[in-house]
Every structure is written in C-alpha cells, then in structure tokens.
Specification:
With about 230 residues, the chain is of the alpha/beta class. It folds into two domains: about 5-95 and about 205-230, D-Maltodextrin-Binding Protein, domain 2, CATH 3.40.190; about 100-200, D-Maltodextrin-Binding Protein, domain 2. About 35% of the residues lie in helices and about 30% in strands. It contains nine helices and twelve strands. A seven-stranded mixed beta sheet has the order 2-3-4-1-5-12-6, with helices on both faces. It has a five-stranded mixed beta sheet with strand order 9-8-10-7-11. Helix 2 packs across helix 3 (about 75-80). The longest helix is centred in the middle third of the chain and has 15 residues, at about 115-130. The structure holds adenosine-5'-triphosphate and 1-O-pyrophosphono-5-O-phosphono-alpha-D-ribofuranose. Adenosine-5'-triphosphate binds next to helix 2 and helix 3. Keywords: Amino-acid biosynthesis, Glycosyltransferase, Histidine biosynthesis, Transferase. Pathway: Amino-acid biosynthesis; L-histidine biosynthesis; L-histidine from 5-phospho-alpha-D-ribose 1-diphosphate: step 1/9. It catalyses: 1-(5-phospho-beta-D-ribosyl)-ATP + diphosphate = 5-phospho-alpha-D-ribose 1-diphosphate + ATP.
Length: about 230
C-alpha cells in the first residue's frame, strides 16, 4: 500500500509542516511550490507527498484523495460537512494557532455575549428594516454556532473573501466571524470578541481521512506514531 500525505505548498504552515516530518524521520525531497505538486520521502517508496494549499488539503481529506494532510482544523471543519465522520485529527501540531471568533463593533456597549447578540438579532428587523448581517468566509461554522448552538435564526451571511474586519465600518455587514491570532486586526477595526464568542480554537493538525484500507495498517500507525513522537 502507498500512503499519500498532503503538505502545504505555500502559506504560513508550509515550513513548520515540513520541519515536523523531518524531525519524524520522514525527510521530504522536492520542496513544494506552485509548480511542483509531488514530492517523496527519502528512502520510502511507500509514501507519496502531494503539495497543495491549506484549503485544498481539507477538501482532499474530505473526498479521500489523500490519506493524511497537514492543515488547519478551521479549514477542515468549514470545508467538510460531517467532518468527524470523514476524518480524524491524528495529532495537533502546535503551530498555526488561530481562533475563529464572533466580533461586534466596540461601540455596541450592551452586547457582550451571544445571548445579547440574540436579542439584537431578534429586534433588528423592527429597528432597521433588515436582518443582522454577518460578514464571513466561514459559512458552515457560523451557521452551526448561531443556529444550532445558540438558537439564533434571524441573520444573513454576507460572503467575505478578504478584509472581513473592514465590513462593519464599510457598511457591508454589522458584525463578523473571522480568524484571529494576535487580535491586532480586530483592535485596528474597533471590533471586540464576545465573551462566549470563540467558535473554534484552531491550529495546524495532522488529519487522517477515514478509509477502510487504513484499518490495521502498520504504515498508517507508523506515520501517526512518528509524527506524535516528533512534537
Ligand atoms: N493570522 C492568521 N490569519 C489567517 N489564518 C491563520 C492565521 N494564523 C493561523 N492561521 C491558519 O492558517 C491556515 C491558512 O493558512 P494560509 O493562509 O497559509 O493558507 P493559504 O495558503 O492561504 O490557503 P488557501 O490559498 O487555500 O486559502 C488556516 O488554518 C488558519 O487557521
Ligand atoms: O489577529 P491577527 O494577528 O491580527 O490576524 C488576523 C488576520 O490575519 C489574517 O489575514 P492575513 O492578512 O494573514 O491574510 P489572509 O487572510 O489572506 O491569510 C486573517 O484573515 C485576519 O484578518
């Protein structure tokens, strides 16, 4: 059996991901970049490396195109319906930390919690003649958190593919759901995180696609054990 491991070909996780595999005794040859999609592990004919972007890795884990991938938990949970049925987080890798959060304008002084936000959402149409608008690229996580976890149904998602934190000031949305690490982008945009507004604490993970062929595979266990030992 050959096992395919997807590693980030670019972006903030690329170097740390390769370094962990090297420490695990799986040295990657053929450094990924936008034009070089395949790599190998020195001395291992049974492992193939696919270089993809972080969000492509989440997608390939979902459709079983790769066996393992290194990517952010946020991208896996946003990208895959029923994520826990289709993948397993084999190891948390200790880098790429970022929280997916609900943030509102600082001047909303009486809004500190999701319950407060639920009250605002309920009154919004009466007061403003439209639903509360949330700018985000995290549609699935937002819907799960607002509708399923907090029972808030009266809102509208405005798709944002960049500069999400600018949406409230620009008038294209009222609040945001986005990733934050240092918090400085939120502060610069006069936004505050709700007290119970952390949807997900994400970091880079070794993710395994759940496949029947992995049952009882020594190679699959070896890869997981090696990576865990390298942390
Ligand atoms: N400050 C941050 N901003 C955005 N993402 C961050 C930050 N810190 C860590 N991450 C994590 O990095 C991952 C995204 O990595 P990156 O932005 O390098 O991907 P990318 O190469 O742009 O991928 P794609 O092109 O597919 O979107 C996410 O899992 C995210 O949680
Ligand atoms: O909490 P902070 O440390 O301020 O980081 C958060 C910001 O960083 C990311 O954007 P980035 O500029 O990295 O671009 P990207 O979204 O294209 O990755 C993210 O989308 C936030 O806007």
């Amino acid at each position: 059996m050959t096992i395919t491991i997807a590693l980030p070909s670019k972006g903030r996780m690329k170097d740390d991901a390769s370094a962990i595999f090297e420490r695990a005794g799986l040295k990657i040859s053929g450094i990924g970049n936008d034009r070089n999609y395949r790599g190998r592990v020195d001395g291992r004919e049974d492992i193939e490396i696919a270089f993809l972007s972080a969000s492509e890795i989440a997608r390939e884990i979902g459709n079983g195109g790769v066996d393992f991938g290194v990517t952010g938990e946020d991208l896996v949970r946003e990208g895959l319906a029923d994520a826990d049925r289709r993948m397993e987080i084999a190891a948390r890798l200790g880098f790429g930390h970022a929280d997916v959060v609900v943030a509102v304008p600082e001047i909303w002084l009486d809004v500190a919690t999701m319950a407060d936000l639920g009250d605002v959402a309920a009154d919004f149409r009466t007061r403003h003649g439209r639903r509360l608008a949330i700018a985000t690229k995290y549609w699935r996580l937002t819907q799960q958190f607002f509708s399923s976890q907090h029972g808030i149904q009266l809102y509208r998602i405005v798709e944002s593919l960049g500069a999400t934190e600018g949406a409230p000031a620009a008038g294209s949305a009222d609040i945001i759901v986005d990733i934050t690490s240092t918090g400085s982008t939120l502060v610069a945009n006069h936004l505050k995180i709700l007290d119970d507004g952390v949807i997900l604490k994400s970091e880079a993970c070794l993710v395994r696609a759940k496949k029947p062929a992995h049952e009882g595979s020594g190679l699959v266990s070896e890869i997981v054990e090696r990576v865990r030992a390298a942390l």
